[in-house]
Give the backbone structure.
Amino acid sequence: MRALSALSTLLLLCSSAVYAVQEGDFEGYLSKLKEQEFAYDYQKASAQSSMLRDSWIQPIIVRYSYKKSNPYDATQTVQNAAIVLDQPIFQSGGIYFAIKYAEASRIYSNYSVDVAKRKLIKDVVALLMQIQKSDLLIKKHRLQIANADINLEQKRELYMNGQLDSGFLDSAVIERNTLTQALYDLETSKEQLIGSFRSLSDLDYKEAEVPHLELVHEDAFLDYSIDLKKIRSENEKNRYFKNMTIAKYLPKLSITAGYNWDSLQNPSFAGSAIPSPPDTSYYNYGFTVSMPLNINFSKDIESVRVDYLKSLVILEDTKRALVALYRRVEQNLRNYDKKIALAKENARLYKKLHADTLTLFRAGYKTDYDVKLLRNSLHIQELDGHIFEMDKQLELLNLYEKMVNAI
């Protein structure tokens, strides 16, 4: 039974991880222009990595010179052409580490772009959620204004009948105006959100679907953390760079080769022309073994070693920050669940009160105002539940921003 329980837990964890990746892959929300910008960033990272990977390959130098002079009024021409190669073929592991460093740099650069892209996608989805939340808040405020209108009408009637002081009537007017001003602010805020959304996405906010997010397991959150993947890739990059730096101070073997051609036309000596020598050409090849002796060797090695050790500390520190983020979101979700439960409980209460009041109204014991007030209050509680659900989704976005598909 324990084995089955452990297996069930493992399957649940794995399914949570897969669900996180599938639901967290928010493609299609960014505008084509934004997608193109990120595509160029990926291309640049790939090009820089390729250039870095081949940086150990030295260029073949092709040189040609042409000179004309007239000493002692005799014009002579000198030409020279050469092809020179000086190529390291062994650097005590430096070539291997340079290639691995280039690949690690490419992965790190791609993760850096992923982080920026992921944040922008999160912003777009958050804007879409906030627009929909604004719609709910606007509906709620309109219902509250409707109740305020009813309350104002009731107090006006009581005041006209001499049953209420004018101060109560004045308070009802102020309450209605305050709610109306808040509604205007909500409508303005919604338009600002729509403007921000349109600047980042080509989708129609009215038709765009909002992804439904669920809380994943903490282990799955860390396994798919884009921040940890980025830092781990930086650790690899720093490790290879450290090895490259060490190899820089170790023996290096290079092959050398060259080909030269020289031509001298119409030479002269002390003003007298002499026969032109025949064109000459020759080649050379060989090898060079070198090793730098630098007093800053140990300091250079220590510097890159410290960078590598620091990146290991940053990895652990980031992991701790992510765990804190996860648990904060988890706690906030629990609080929203309590608010949702309270809104549902209030809705059940208002539903019963509305039904009872409707029965009394039909019997002539309650007014139409009482029925409308309770009906609006019931809808307000139902909207509160939906608003808190949207708040939960916005909270979960803070986790999904940090997650990416496994590579």
Observations:
- Residues 74 and 272 are 8 Å apart (CA to CA).
- Strands lie at 61-69, 76-90, 252-265, 268-269, 272-273, 280-290.
- Residues 1-24 have pLDDT under 50 and may be disordered.
- The chain has two domains: 10-56+93-127+194-251+297-400, 61-90+254-290.
